[in-house]
Amino acid sequence: MKALRILAVIGAILLMAGEGYRSWGAGRPAVFWMDDMLAGAMMIAAAILVGRQSFATRSFFAASWGVAVGMLYGSFFGKLYDPASSNPGNFSIGLLTWLVGAAFAIAIGGLVASILLPGPRR
User: Fold this and answer.
1) In a 3-state reduction of DSSP, which class is residue 122?
2) How buried is residue 79: exposed, middle or buried, by Cβ count under 10 Å (0-12/13-18/19+)?
3) What is the pLDDT of residue 121?
4) Cα gap 33→16, rounded to integer Å
5) Residue by residue, what is the 3-state secondary structure of 46-94?
6) Above 60 in pLDDT, residue 94?
7) Looking at residue 37, what DSSP letter applies?
8) pLDDT at 120 over 80
9) Sequence-distant (≥ 6) Cβ neighbours of residue 35 within 8 angstroms
10) The whole model's pTM is what?
11) Out of 38, 97, 110, 121, which could bridge 65 as a Cys pair, Cβ 3.0 to 4.6 Å?
């Protein structure tokens, strides 16, 4: 569980920093970068709270991974199938697609792992 919590925090920080770099000075509307900031903040909060394991904190942790999966799904496949309509900001479209795809795969793994990890012993 601890490794998954660390992965969540590192992933969230990278997501937020990457989106900040991508959007800085690129004129992207706030609605297109705010979702990454909210998902990252949710993942960090959930990773901290799940240290005190309960049904609610484990559910919140899994939900935070689910939010990341849902957000990254549209972003990845939108760039993959229609790169011309994507605004890559300060990244090249190829690198951005690869980074978002890697984040999407990690988020899927995190979601599955957060659901399947055994709970605390009683």
Assistant:
1) coil
2) buried
3) 64
4) 9
5) HHHHCCCCCHHHHHHHHHHHHHHHHHHHHHHHHHHHCHHHCCCCCCCHH
6) yes
7) H
8) no
9) 71
10) 0.91
11) 110
Rounded to whole angstroms, the Cα distance separating 43 from 22 reads: 20
Query: What are the Cα distances from residue 106, in Å, to 15, 36, 38, 51, 85?
Result: 12, 15, 18, 21, 25
Instruction: Write the single-letter amino acid at 59.
Output: S
Alpha-carbon dihedral of residues 52, 53, 56, 61, nearest 10 degrees?
A: 90
Q: CA–CA distance from 13 to each of 16, 21, 121 (Å)?
A: 5, 12, 31
Polymer length of the chain: 122
Location of structure tokens 């900040």: 20
